[in-house]
Amino acid sequence: MLASVSRRYAHRIPFLVKLNHNETLSYPNTYDQTLYASVEQAFNMGAVAVGATIYFGSEESRRQIEEISAAFERAHELGMVTVLWAYLRNSAFKKDGVDYHVSADLTGQANHLAATIGADIVKQKMAENNGRL
After folding, report:
1. Which Gene3D superfamilies does this entry report, sorted A to Z (predicted)?
2. Which of 76, 101, 6 shows the shortest CA–CA distance to 47?
3. Taking the CA of residue 115 as centre, how many other CA atoms within 13 Å lie in the half-sphere pointing to its CB?
4. Rounded to an integer, what distance in angstroms lies between the CA atom of residue 95 and that of residue 93?
5. Nearest Cα residue to 90 out of 78, 69, 107
6. Cα(91)–Cα(98) distance, integer angstroms
7. φ/ψ (deg, to 5) at 14
8. CB atoms near residue 21 (< 10 Å)
9. pLDDT > 90: percent of the chain
10. Residue 90: what are its φ and ψ, rounded to 5°?
11. Element containing residue 10 per DSSP (H, E)
12. What CA–CA distance (Å, rounded) separates 132 from 52?
């Protein structure tokens, strides 16, 4: 739907196109993000920004990092803003009743990696343990 009308309103309504998403119809659900759009498609629709999610710590995180790093590099070449949802996903991050997915040291590492691959804006869960910083 957006693609059919985006050019008509792009100069008045700036928008972001999210490039990937978790396909949730498969069972069991995996912590993987699949690319559904390209930076060029977003640019041609008139988007001012692209966004993506990386599940750091997941089995597919290295591939996700490589894909999104390349996409963000291309977006910057086109003058676009980049936004990364930087989430942790690994069953080993839960131990003895403590969920380390929201610990300050691990979320801080995800933020560092997000900045390293070129994210202009990083969305992260607020740390709830391990210093809450």
Report:
1. Aldolase class I (3.20.20.70)
2. 6
3. 6
4. 6
5. 107
6. 12
7. -65, 140
8. 13
9. 60
10. -165, 125
11. none
12. 25
- Spatial separation of the C-alpha atoms in residues 50 and 43, rounded to whole Å: 9
131: confidence class by pLDDT, cuts 50, 70, 90: low
* Joined tokens for residue 59: 């089995």
User: What pLDDT band is residue 73 in, cutting at 50, 70 and 90?
Assistant: very high
Query: 3-state DSSP call for residue 56?
Result: strand
Please give the positions annotated as active site.
123
Q: How many CA atoms within 13 Å lie on the side-chain side of 111? A: 16
The string over 86-117, giving b where at least 16 C-beta atoms fall within 10 Å of a residue's C-beta and e elsewhere, is bbbbbeebeeeeeebbbbbebbeebbebbeeb
Burial (CB count within 10 angstroms: exposed 0-12, middle 13-18, buried 19+), residue 49 = middle
**What is the amino acid identity at position 24?**
T
Domains and CATH numbers, the chain: 2-123 (3.20.20.70)
Question: What is the C-alpha to C-alpha distance for residues 67 and 20, in angstroms, rounded to an integer?
Answer: 10
